[in-house]
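User: structure tokens for MG2 domain-containing protein, please.
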Amino acid sequence: MNSLEKTVQAVFLLLTLVGIVPVWGQSENPIQTKLDAYRNQTLQEKLFVHLDRSFYVAGELMWFKINYVDGTFHQPLSLSKVAYLEVFDKENRPVLQTKVALADGSGTGSLFLPTTLGSGNYLVRAYTNWMKNTDPDYFFEKPVTVVNTFRKLELPVLKDSLAYDVQFFPEGGNLVRNLPGKVAFKMVGTTGKGVDLQGVVLDQSNDTVVRFKPLKFGMGRFALTPAEGKQYRAVLTDAAGKTFTRPLPAVQEQGYTMQVEEEGKDQLRVTVKTTAPAASLVYLLTHTRLAAIRADEQGLRDHTASFLIDKKTLGEGISHLTVFEASRKPVCERLYFKRPERRLTIDAKLTSGALSTREKAVFDVTTQDETGKPALTDLSVAVYRLDSLQPAESGDILSYLLLTSDLRGGVESPDYYFQATGAEVNDVTDNLMLTQGWRRFRWETVLQTDRPAEAHLPEVNGHFIRGKVIHPGTGQPGYNISSYLSVPGKHILLYGSRSDKTGRIHFEMKEFFGPKDLVVQLNPKDSLFRIELLSPFYDRFSASRLPVFDFPTALKEPLLARSIPMQVQNAYYRENLSRYRLPQVDSVAFYGVPDERYRLDDFTRFPVMEEVFREYVPGVMARKRRDGYVISLLDTPHKQFFDGSPLALLDGVPIFDMDKVMEIDPRKVQRLDVMTRRYIVGPLVFDGIISFTTYKGDLAGYRPDAKALLADYEGLQIPRDFYTPRYDTPQRSGSRMPDLRNLLHWAPTLKTDGQGKGKLEFYTSDEEGTYRFMINGITADGRAGSRQGTFEVTKVIK
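Assistant: Done. Predicted tokens:
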């Protein structure tokens, strides 16, 4: 079984396990059956990225922790082993890209923000290879601000205040003539935040139909029954008295509407109306992230059907309510949000007392579930100095998993929907559900009988390096052509692939860290073709747009106060900021322990390779013929020589010309490994292996074929150690080295034990002021929570 088959097998095994979910309403319904089958076959993944901050100056490090969970129950996953993290500018151009190793549901890393970056707002996004099969709107995204203090700050000219984005959303998706309905609206300004505009709906005779204004975050709703022969538009007025017009969604002459209302505390009533003359019945299907699926059927009376839904059957977070007509075509859909009761509580108490500069801070951290029981939790913690540059943090792991990750576009102040109290919060939440509906699948895909295979496989063993074999003259793909990827060095790595009908090849790179030199080549018999490597990063983007960058001149002093510590850190602590934890990787060659190994220094040195084989490598037979050398290996299990040529390697690079093998200078070779049996590399089969390793692992002057592709390639990121000084002795505390850190601590893998207890320790810097700690965490069973707080650091008076 090759690696690709193992990958597919692992995927379907995990999908089967994840697919075991509770289902209510077990009536025989083909829509429910198809959605249930879709869920069982299509695993949804989610990534949440905890960034240490959201405001940076160029020259600082951006630290991050990636939580990797399934999209239904939010339990940590171990399927994909690689996450891709990128930083984009306002034109969707990637300015930074990295690949991060995932293990046991998480991954950690950092990015240096170079001084080549211009000042502005940037978008951080993260995804896996498997997530490329979904809409890019499903990727994790978070805006950050970077200011380059080494360049003159050139702010863009702000557009006229009339550049508002105003959209209208009929409940269920439709406005239908003569049917009552609700229309939600969302008003957004150039900053990306909601604005407070006054509005009025007018008909074609300029008669006022309804007046409206937002309730909160620029969102609200109004009732509208489209009358016969009427056309509608909205006129809006801003705070300065300027007006502009926006059209309302088109009115259908015939169709369906749905209305969802609270029925007491424990139920929802869903009312479906239609003007379709032949309509006889409708279906209502509800689900929460493809789980808790329920299908109900109602006959229409007076073109109306009514459903009652017990809220207990809905999962926490966002549920989809979809109406299908008799032929099982979806006609209406809307969302409903259920506040979570099942959540993680995190508490952090400063136990070291009042803090001054260069003093040890100790926090006792406890984690509990909603019942007060201890919860073993994986936490990430950032501790940084508060200033007027750093905005209030929002968008923690709980609000992301249960809210923003299931909605299209940005959500202003997502924490509000989990923390606010009072009657207003329910209406504000429902406005959000009406204006930002979205699902991660298309009903057309779910309902079709034969779904095509996914284009992108999960990277269950390691990073995929993908390429394409093409004919340079015609541009046509090469089919069934063997290709080889090697990483020259003393650690022998070789990967094989065979092109498919589209010319695509892929190499599965296990434990592939750091920058590498790659040699990718074809067998000379396929020399008419060439190889192109494809970028592993996704080239499609979400509909998200960054807010216009605007930096107040009043913040120049705080910016200078932030820039100086960055420069001091880079000047005095550069070595400490560049400490990396080299991952433990298997240094054994890809073929494992060879059948025969010869350390050439243990034998008499010969000047030519033919003498080496003849004198002390009996398993290799080299014969010179009219057209060149032929090398054969002994097939030890069958006690005869192979008919075909072996795979010959020099520091892991294949050599297909046996004459060039014989030209290798034995005096530069440290070790010779021989595999005296047939060996399989991916889809490729070889009649044995002879592998030469030079003293320096640098090919000893050998040049690969001119048609080979030589490439610098960045593997998975090597984790960087977070540096924090220790002032645990009088000598260290009295050091005259300046310590101007404003990011005091970053702990991406803090664990609480079975009693829900953990400890956080670090030392303060020379900077007094108010500091904030931000903690995000998740348990093995999918409970998520966060906690943030502040503490003071005072100056030591000598």
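User: Anything notable?

Assistant: The CA atoms of residues 74 and 782 lie 5 Å apart.
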